[in-house]
Model the fold of this input.
Amino acid sequence: MSDRVIAIDGPAGSGKSSVARALASALGWSFLDTGAMYRAVTVAALDRGVEPSDAPAVAALARAAAIETLPRVVIDGRDVEDAIRTERVNEAVSIVAANPEVRAQMVERQRAFADRQPEGTVVEGRDITTVVFPNATVKVFLTASLEERARRRGEEGAASVARRDEADASRAASPLRRAPDALVLDTTGRSVEEVVEEIRAWLRTRPH
Done:
């Protein structure tokens, strides 16, 4: 399975989703946005009046939820593609994503998704190269300046992005960190197409 996975990690606003989606399209592979899964659980919790900090309740909700990410993000039959990008979700998703039981459930689903794909999968998130697919033959870590990342996140703002950086890097369960064997790319001021082409060029020069 790991031979058919390109794993992409990086902080909020580094370009993971755009780059991963474009790379998957260029290769004819499947695409999985793991962050959307945590955001979908967050929407469901907030809408049902479950406190994000209530770890057992959120874990139970996640365990029972049916989640799809393509072509749009859906949880338990409800389209939440737009809802997952709202400010209330931005503020709460790091709490949900730090829940060890939720992470264990999502990791299992992410691996199962990749295993079902007939070609390969480009998977992006914050623990893909280190936890979900630590044996992936292709690992990429995207980064960018805080100013650039805040600009890409629109209304979220630099303070919110920096707060999520801290939460993601300091959580006990699967913290955001750079895999030592990952290709590191700074996407500041660069187009999605430029970054995708650099990754593809790197793939072509790697030994098989």
Notes: The chain has one domain: 2-205.
